[in-house]
Write the structure tokens for this entry.
Amino acid sequence: MIQIRSPIIITMILLFSLWMAIPAFATSTVYQLNIDAPIHPVTMRFVEEAIERSEMEKAEALIIQMDTPGGLMESMRGITKAILNADVPVIVYVAPEGARAGSAGVFITLAAHIAAMAPSTNIGAATPVTMGGGGGGGEEEGKEKSEEAKSNEMAMRQKMTNDAVAQAKTIAERRGRNVEWAEAAVREAASITASEALENNVIDYIAESVSELLVMVHGDSVEVKSGTVVLDTEKADVKVIEYTWRDKFLLTIANPNLAYLLMLLGMYGLIFELYNPGAVIPGVIGVIAIILAFFAFQTLPLNWAGLLLIVVAIAMFILEIKVTSMGFLTLGGTASLIIGSIMLFDSPIPALRVSWSVIIPTVIVTVLFFAVALAYGIRAQKNKVTTGHEGLVGEKGIAVSELNPNGRVKIGGEYWKASAASESISEGANIVVTGGDRLMLIVREDT
């Protein structure tokens, strides 16, 4: 028998044994990100980065906990493409209770390797919707234009619907889910509860929590891009991917209400700077606000007609200060601002449009601002001139020398060269200013 008495060798053997035993006790890692907002480019980038991180760190799976009313089709396509080509199993979990996967959320749920919902949630209503429309002018010609516009709109809507149906069916077929319901969700805006979704093979599980879901999916085999993966999630360590300060900032800027206010603030700042050159601060604030607003416009369904109407409204308000229009420019500007604010973002989803609670106070404040500016402008035009010769007309003083016809007078503590308007004025006589010529005042004796 070989006896090992060296403490160094014994320690090394113990450490090696402990190192070999570590894998038996190690737990897998599952990443989780939460989406509780409309789907737009910022959301798409966040999901794509989460998938890349999960792949790089060899995560067991990525859970996307989702509660969304829908969003932009292009952003949804980017997310589904990332999920379908992922090398890590992606689990979409519609939660918490009361959450929904509407519109774009339907496609994302269908694209997941494993789809689950919490109790009291719903999924559906994925019909693509366009806003806007045409309208003609007079009688038969206007009617013909209107019918033509309606026909074009119907054709465009049908084209978008067929495209969305094809994508939904393709994704459902790829994941072995209910193709008929996927088509109905797009064509008929079908919407179902969590239990109905499970019965109709739209989702795979109903779970009350993430931990319960991980136990349910443990041992499932899923097909990722690189092959088949068997999930080991029963005792997985869940790590939530938090939004960075940059992500939070971008999500805040992408809010349509804030983007709308930033745009108006930027316009007001630039207008103030143009009317008061050298103020600097309003100009700097205006430029920054405009840049941030246009960044937000890139992530939102901007309607250029709405933006143009708002610009025209501001131009009308400014012209009202310069041109007397009996208030017609103000009325036109108010109407243009309201219509432009409503049309600014072209989306059927309320979360991607400017709220009425923001539009109404903003319009009122804007109209009052320009109305007050107009009132002060008119009042200033009617006020007596207080500078130059015009400002001294009517002022009284005393002749400090004889004016025959020229001499000197004292007005309000100041000495001026003066010329008698007609006859000479004796020294010490009271005078009144009647006009001026360059640095010479024209005066007459005050009788």
Observations:
- The radius of gyration is 37 Å.
- The domain at 388-445 is CATH 2.40.50.140 (OB fold (Dihydrolipoamide Acetyltransferase, E2P)).
- Residues 139-175 form the longest helix (37 residues).
